[in-house]
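Assess this:
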Amino acid sequence: MASAQKIHSVAAYDNAPFFEKALKYAVQNNVIDQARLVEIINDAATGSLQIAEYFDESIHLRKNLETSMKRMVSLVSLYLEDATDGELDKAAQLLKDKPFRALSRGGSQMLKALYNLPEDEHFGSIRLENERDFLKKGLNKELSVIKYRQSFKECEHYKHHINLATWLVKKLGASTKELSVTHAPVEHVIRTSILFLTYGTKKALSKRTKFPDETVLFEIFSSIRREWALLGDVTQSNKFLEDVPEQFQITIKTILQSIQNEDIPKIVNDSIGLDSVLHHLTGSKYFYIPDQLNEVSRFDKRLAGEWVALTGDIDTSADNEDLLLLTLFLCVAAGIERKTKLKVFEAKKAVLNIREHGLLQNEVLNLIKAAPHDDVKQLTSLWDEFIDEAAPYLLDSSDENLHEVIVYLTERCNIHKTKK
């Protein structure tokens, strides 16, 4: 009876069933005797005091000691189940052979090992919790072995990819410092590095001093499409694979195959603008170091040839910039010649076109997409606000002589009356 009571006194603190099962199994199968059971209970009591002190909790409050005992039993359960793969006979033997506090330390070391692994796949990420808070959270949740193993496997995967990305960046002759500052996604960095090393032009490869920027990526994409158009194939160099450490070879070859099967067909598809392909892929698979010094990057300026041609007469520092832009957007929405200055009769033609054929909203949005990326959101907002208010005037068929709509547009667009 006394033995049964002591078993219950330990098990009562247990919210992790495996320890309870192992302890009962050990007693019922005579793996541990009465003396060993007393040792476990005493060891658990001493350990609970140490755990309370570790978490800066008063050892004079019964509630804290009960919480510490639960944490200790959770640690023991985690270690036992992991070490024995849930086999009760092996767990019972460990209870016999190892001090209870040693089993607890085993569980603590498991959680600390998890804490020391990266928790995501971004450069420069740091855990928001310190080690103590991490352990406390894990124990409060009573982390199961299954969940622990899943988390550990995921975090090891993150570490593997971070190590691979770091190796590739060094292979490029670049530094991970900027990647850490920008919290670059590791998988995108890996893919970009492999693309660069495999399909990079000789000029780009000869100047490997930093991680590729958007201009370099565009050059690589252009080279791939140009070669495909000329030869119906794309030359790739796998020379760098000779230096790849063994632990990275499978991952690199898998990603390289994915680039060949998924990305190259999109890059060489000349029915889609290369700038659109690049922006789609850099948003989902690739990464480049952004230009922090210029509001509009050199790459965006080059891609915005159509935009510059259409808005070349717009002084972006002028007070009437919005008037000029809205005039241009109105022309696009009406399907008339694109201008940033309209005469009254041209404005009337725009209104009549809209009333007859409808607003060409998509055409306006497509034009805005041709603008430098840093300006797209602001331009979209400018158009949305304008058209929401202007639509009732533009589509008001009761305004037959177009007087109301022209008055409205004259105030918000660049419309001039013909001089007599």
